[in-house]
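Title: Request for sanity check on Succinate dehydrogenase cytochrome b560 subunit, mitochondrial prediction

Description:
We are preparing a figure and want to confirm that the structure record we downloaded matches what your pipeline produces today. Could someone re-run it with the sequence below and paste the raw structure tokens into this thread? We only need the token string, no images.
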Amino acid sequence: MAALLLSAVPLGTTAKEEMERFWNKNIGSNRPLSPHITIYSWSLPMAMSICHRGTGIALSADVGPRKRPEDSPAIPVWSGCPGSYCVVLYGAGSH
């Protein structure tokens, strides 16, 4: 039994060998690391999506932890039609 264990060889490749083969192939072909960043051109929906996410994060960080509506820097100013609610944020950088 000991003779079998001494002469045993792995049947497959190790993870390290696979990674080395992968990186050698990619370095040899001069591929960029992240091609998805460079192939897309900026568009209006993409910019609006990023702004919408940023606004949501800013509002949740500023308005979310408040306990009472009176403590919030958001003031309701106008309700133009049923279902619409306009809010003005004042002092964005002062608190």
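Thanks, this matches our download. The longest helix spans residues 44-63.
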